[in-house]
Amino acid sequence: MKRKIFVSLLIMSFISLFSECAFAFKVNIDQPKILLEIAPGEKKSSYINVDSYDSKDSMVVDVYTQDIMYLPDGSNDFLPPGTTPWSCADWIKLNPTGFELKPNNERVVKFEVKVPPDAKGGKYAVIFFEVSPPRDIKDLNAPVSSVRLGSIILVTIKGTEVYEAELRGLIANKDEEKSEVNVSCVIYNGGNILTRPKGEIILMDTAGKELDKKDLNPINGGVLPNTNRTFTVKWSLDIFEEKKDYIFQATIDYGGEVLLGGQTYFVRD
Fold first, then answer.
1. Are 206 and 113 found together in one domain?
2. Is the domain of 153 the same as that of 169?
3. Which domain holds residue 233?
4. 107-111, 130-134, 247-251: which range is least confident on average?
């Protein structure tokens, strides 16, 4: 069963100083992420269902593409099509690009991705569905708002993938305010395709005895080509004895032929 995104949108339209009219919209998309494998010079089509539920009012839906970017801290940013070197936003043809969605109705948005013959690696974009009140409500010049839902498109150009990565930093810092030890792992993706590094960080004493172990990147976050991303693993400060040395050892699988590894030391003062 496809996972749906559920979004409730409340739009307020002030008619006078003493009264107001509220329009509540609920809308779903059924594919928040779509993975496509396409050979160079070929194309592939897919679709996304958009539907309203438990609604009394129509809504206007504008459909468009943007580039996606993962910032070093793991948050997302969205940019105009063609801004990033890993963009496929301009390869996507949408049909339709806008429509009115009636209450408790569904609309299928079809799209086609056409890959250029010389394309390599992985390319990425997001298809946004921006939902707003009907045009006649907007014309009242009342304060309104809109919401957008996104479906991430991940295209792998078949037979051209290159997996390369580096461990560019492994640092353990104490956070006295939160009574934590934060181990930050900086991973650089030197390949041409999105990678989702997995691994573990082991806490040891200086004799090499394992004291604890935690997963790295349990949420399966991605690192885009030619970018860094920092993954942080936290430990409670209470488990560390004062004036004692500790070792953190990281082992990371990024999808390539070899694993990444590193160590860093920590002393609780």
1. no
2. no
3. 165-267
4. 130-134
Number of structural domains (the chain) is 2
Cβ neighbours of 70 (radius 10 Å):
19
Q: 149 and 243 share a domain?
A: no
Residue-wise pLDDT for 146-188, tens only, equals: 788 999 999 999 999 999 999 999 999 999 889 999 999 999 9
As given in the structure block, the two tokens for residue 53 are: 């539920």
Name the more confident of 35 and 53.
35
Question: Distance (Å, rounded) from C-alpha 185 to C-alpha 177?
Answer: 21
Cα gap 99→68, rounded to integer Å: 24
Tell me the average pLDDT of the chain: 87
Cα–Cα distance measured from residue 246 to residue 248, given in angstroms and rounded to the nearest whole number: 7
CA-closest candidate to residue 82, choices 95, 69, 70, 72 = 69
Say if residue 96 is preceded by a cis peptide, omega within 30 of 0: yes
Rg (CA), the chain: 24
Alpha helices in 170-234 (DSSP H): none
DSSP per residue, 43-64: EEEEEEEEEE-S-SS-EEEEEE
Verify that 124 and 184 share a domain, yes or no: no
Q: Are strands 33-38 and 147-157 parallel, antiparallel or unpaired?
A: parallel
Picking from 116, 131, 157, the residue at the C-terminal end of a domain is: 157
Same domain, 173 and 253: yes
- Is residue 204 classed as helix, strand or coil in its secondary structure? strand
Residue at which a domain ends, from 107, 130, 157 = 157
pLDDT level of residue 7 (50, 70, 90 thresholds): very low
Q: Does residue 186 share a domain with residue 170?
A: yes
Structure confidence by residue, pLDDT tens digits, 224-236: 999 999 999 999 9
| CATH number of the CATH domain containing 254 | 2.60.40.10
